[in-house]
Amino acid sequence: MTLRSVDNCIKRKRQMKKFLAERLNFAGKKPLLGIILDRELSVKEETVLQEILEGTGYVNVQVVILADTNLMAFSVAHTIVVPYNRIGRREILEAADIALSFSFSDVEEMLLHGTIPVSPVRPEVMDYNPNHETGNGFIYRKDGCWSIFAALVRALETYKFPYDWRNIVRQGLEKARE
Predict the structure, then answer these.
(1) Contacts of 59 (CB under 8 A, 6+ apart)
(2) I need a surface site. Which of 53, 90, 149, 171 has the fewest CB within 10 A?
(3) Cα 44 from Cα 125, distance rounded (Å)
(4) What does the domain layout of the chain look like in residue ranges?
(5) Do 26 and 80 contact (CB within 8 A), yes or no?
(6) Is the model's pTM score more than 0.70?
(7) CB 91, CB 128: distance < 8 Å
(8) Quick check: 142 and 102 in contact, CB under 8 A?
(9) Mean pLDDT score, 111-117
């Protein structure tokens, strides 16, 4: 994987974020967190997600949720909920910097679009280690909101460092293309 192709992916992501920001009427300056809900959540999962969404109001992130109509109840001031469809799915994955991953999420699709997952432990995701500059995502070890939120904050803090972020995107693209 060349740095040029990684830079092209990041440039394309900026363009898609700008397009999505104009269409959905949000400021495209913040990191974009995509959440794709393509199946019904359990009551516990809904509660955890609602708590995470409340917490994202205290960090510098724009949240876009793609959800079926029966999941559209997630409304927090800084969150935009969009009805689920295939085009919307592709647009969000192409625009999002980070995606919240659940056990049912397609992580390889995220990585292929240069979107960095905040994910439970899975074989496709290697937890980012800043000391070794390795990893293609941010792992949460427990399904509770605080564990997930801690991994999300690590991702958002790392996003502030362009060299490190580019390296994570590169490793994600390489993993997706294996």
Answers:
(1) 152, 153, 156
(2) 90
(3) 24
(4) 3-176
(5) yes
(6) yes
(7) no
(8) no
(9) 95
Rg from Cα positions in the chain: 15
Under the banding of pLDDT at 50, 70 and 90, the label for residue 1 is low
- Neighbour tally for 73: CB within 10 Å: 10
**CATH no., domain 3-176:** 3.40.50.2000
Write the CB contacts of 114 (distance below 8 Å, at least 6 apart in sequence): 6, 9, 10, 12, 13, 169, 172, 173
Q: How many CA atoms lie within 13 A of 22 on its CB side?
A: 5
Residue 178: pLDDT band with limits 50, 70, 90: confident
